[in-house]
Specification:
The protein has 163 residues and is an alpha+beta fold. It has helices spanning 2-9, 13-35, 38-50, 60-76, 83-97; strands spanning 101-109, 115-123, 127-130, 140-141, 146-147, 159-160. It is built from five helices and six strands; from the N terminus they run αααααββββββ. Helix 2 (13-35) packs across helix 4 (60-76) and helix 2 (13-35) crosses helix 5 (83-97). It starts with a helix and ends with a strand.
Length: 163
């Protein structure tokens, strides 16, 4: 635990800011998903997007810091950091930085014959920012889940963001 605190202390200020924001947003999203239906949460996030100009692109380093902060915070906050929570948090952080992204939600059938659902975040360039899993190419996205600009979800899962 001491090493983790030391590691956090040594992070650059922007990475600390993203991590703390991701942690708080993850807690808020978990609470909201517990008490409110998804369409209500979707409308709330859409209102947040209207407060920010999401018409320009940020650099790859910023996107990587956001993705890292979301994944890292999901492991450390005392909630179950589901893919949906991570995608929602990432979408809000990207909007705050002005980066347009699309939340994708899709389903696939497992080897056992059960349906599995997954949420992931796609940049305007079609790269997966948050939610990359080995079998992502098998998930079929629902059409029109939502993007800041009202665009429909991509027809197929995108490629991964290169590190």
């Amino acid at each position: 635990m001491i090493k983790k605190l030391r590691d956090f202390h040594e992070l650059p200020p922007r990475a600390k800011k993203f991590w703390l924001a991701a942690a708080w947003l993850a807690l808020a999203m978990r609470l909201l998903l517990t008490i409110a239906p998804f369409p209500v949460l979707r409308a709330l996030v859409a209102k947040l997007h209207k407060l920010h100009d999401v018409s320009h692109r940020v650099d790859a380093d910023t996107l990587n810091e956001i993705a890292w902060a979301v994944r890292s915070a999901a492991r450390w906050v005392p909630i179950r950091g589901t893919c949906l929570i991570q995608a929602l948090v990432g979408q809000i952080l990207c909007a705050c930085c002005g980066q347009p992204v699309t939340l994708c939600i899709g389903v696939t059938k497992s080897k056992q014959g059960t349906f599995e659902a997954h949420a992931w975040l796609v940049t305007s360039e079609g790269k997966t920012l948050i939610g990359q899993v080995p079998n992502l190419k098998y998930f079929v996205p629902f059409e029109g889940v939502w993007a800041e600009n009202g665009a429909r979800s991509p027809a197929r899962p995108p490629t991964s963001l290169a590190h």
